[in-house]
Amino acid sequence: MAIQNISSVTTQDVANQTLPNQTVTKDDFLKLLIAQLQNQDPLQPMDNQQFAVQLATFNSLEQLISINKQLGSLQSTQGLTNQFNAASLIGKEVATTGNTISLQSSSPVPVTYRLGANASRVVVNIQDSGGGLVRQLEVGSQKAGDQTITWDGKDASGKAAAPGLYRFEINAFDLNGKQVQASGRLQGIVTGVRWDGSEPILELGNLQVPLSSVTTVRSRS
């Protein structure tokens, strides 16, 4: 008995036509499966167990694509939620890690930091944007925990420093002269929020800090 309409197209031919970027979608997989069925030997058809495995693979692929779409939608929703949560912080007082301060019109500026242990001597160095030393403040002894001192906005010669952003460096030592761990803290009122990056950026006046660095949120007194 003659066999009619046996296509000469191979599975590899279908793969080359439908997968130019070597990316398999569920439609591509289905085309490959149909091509395999069309080109099988009628006298030696595909093994039932093998066919069942391929169908199960196709079903798993479809489920994975669906899960991937749902995760993408969930990620987008989470991003919108983070944006709204960040906007709710406007007007709130937040504390975050960092060592940048903003000087405006030579007004006194609070410098906040945390000491990991009691210190017999604490020195705060105020630096300009280029890392140059502007003022060195001898604080004396302080206990472990959060501490705040005030910089009067003047340089080492007693002249008013130019308004702008400055950095501060904390050097703390115990009674034996061993350095004590210290980290800078920023504190201020959230005046605005930006969403032009991977996460919301809070604006504390002239300072900008990522939402993920916030450690404390308080209602404004």
Question: What features would you describe in this structure?
Answer:
This protein is of the alpha+beta class and 221 residues long. It has two domains: 11-86; 93-218, Immunoglobulin-like, CATH 2.60.40. Helix content is 28%, strand content 35%. It is built from three helices and 13 strands, in the order αααβββββββββββββ. The strands form three sheets. A five-stranded antiparallel β-sheet has the order 6-3-9-1-13, with no helix packed on it. Strands 2, 4, 5, 7 and 8 form a five-stranded antiparallel β-sheet that branches. A three-stranded antiparallel β-sheet has the order 10-11-12, with no helix packed on it. Helix 1 (11-18) packs antiparallel against helix 2 and helix 2 (26-38) packs antiparallel against helix 3. It is elongated and about 95 Å long.
